[in-house]
From TrEMBL:
The lineage of its organism: Bacteria, Pseudomonadati, Pseudomonadota, Betaproteobacteria, Burkholderiales. One of its GO terms (cellular component) is plasma membrane. This is Molybdenum transport system permease. It comes from Achromobacter piechaudii ATCC 43553. Pfam families: BPD_transp_1 (PF00528). The chain crosses the membrane at residues 6-32, 44-65, 85-105, 146-168, 194-213.
Length: 228
């Protein structure tokens, strides 16, 4: 494998890995909260958290620029500490984590809502605290479906293009991920590099999808979040 292919592959794996971690932590926490607590506005919040799944990536990229740019609400504050996220791989991580978040969130929420509440109540009767119930009862029962969502989120983060290009740019060796490298290769007429990058990306995504399919409980589908 040549360097022009190897470098964006490693960068994409790093970005997708960090993005998946952030999406998993935030998505699981949000899913548990919405699945357990009834309060006004829950459906609206669910819609807002799912929005990155349907919004055009360029729209997400624009929102990120408005927020994280030097004149943005958050970017202006970060600039005081000499923290710059635009045109950095960390910016690419933020973009990828946002687009991957709904996949973890929807899978985790469906999984939590399908956990038998009587098992949690039995643990309470036995004197187990709420934290213990979550880690010893709820999370283990929902783990397979959540992990399936995590794998899908990783595949989505790995292939993120629009928002990443807008917030992180196309800097070879710094912010040029696989998808951005494919775009540049096609634009430059470098069919050999483009074909190789497409092959690597496609194989990786197929492997992830196969693994996710194995984790979804029988009788469920990836579309419904792996609920039982």
């Amino acid at each position: 494998m040549t360097d022009p292919v190897w470098i964006p592959l490693l960068l994409s794996l790093k970005v997708a890995g960090w993005a998946t971690l952030l999406a998993t932590l935030a998505g699981t926490a949000a899913a548990y909260g919405l699945s357990r607590w009834r309060w006004p506005g829950r459906d609206l919040l669910d819609a807002l958290l799912t929005l990155p799944l349907v919004l055009p990536p360029t729209v997400l990229g624009y929102y990120l620029l408005v927020l994280l740019g030097r004149r943005g609400v958050i970017g202006e504050v970060l600039a005081k500490w000499n923290i710059e996220l635009v045109f950095t791989w960390q910016g690419a991580v933020i973009a990828a984590s946002i687009v991957a978040f709904p996949l973890v969130f929807k899978s985790a929420r469906a999984a939590f809502e399908n956990v038998d509440i009587q098992l949690e109540n039995a643990a309470r009767v036995l004197g187990v605290g709420e934290v213990g119930i979550f880690f010893r009862v709820t999370l283990p029962l929902a783990a397979r479906s959540i992990l399936a969502g995590v794998l899908l989120a990783f595949a989505r983060a790995l292939g993120e293009f629009g928002a990443t290009l807008m917030i992180a740019g196309n800097l070879p060796g710094r912010t040029q991920t696989l998808s951005v490298a494919i775009y540049e290769a096609v634009q430059a007429g470098d069919d050999r590099t483009a074909n190789l990058l497409v092959l690597v990306t496609s194989i990786t995504c197929v492997v992830v999808l196969l693994a996710a399919g194995k984790l979804v409980p029988k009788g469920a589908s990836l579309r419904d979040g792996g609920g039982r």
